[in-house]
Specification:
single chain, globular
């Protein structure tokens, strides 16, 4: 599978938003962590938790691949 690359501007652009959150991922988190994620999602205007988590994971992999 070919890895797609997006700039930060593209990731956060409503018009060009890539479909980064169309797969299922199970994440273990405490209720306090989930509450914190919900607050961030609401405050920053993400559509849902999945969108926020997908963008976090995408950013992490961008940083890791840059350090290799």
């Amino acid at each position: 599978m070919k890895r797609r690359s997006y700039s930060r501007k593209q990731v956060f652009s409503e018009k060009n938003r890539p479909n980064l959150y169309d797969r299922f991922i199970t994440i273990r988190a405490s209720s306090e962590e989930i509450d914190l994620i919900d607050k961030i999602v609401k405050k920053k205007g993400f559509k849902n938790r999945s969108e926020f988590i997908a963008i976090c994971i995408h950013s992490y992999f961008d940083k890791e691949s840059a350090s290799l």
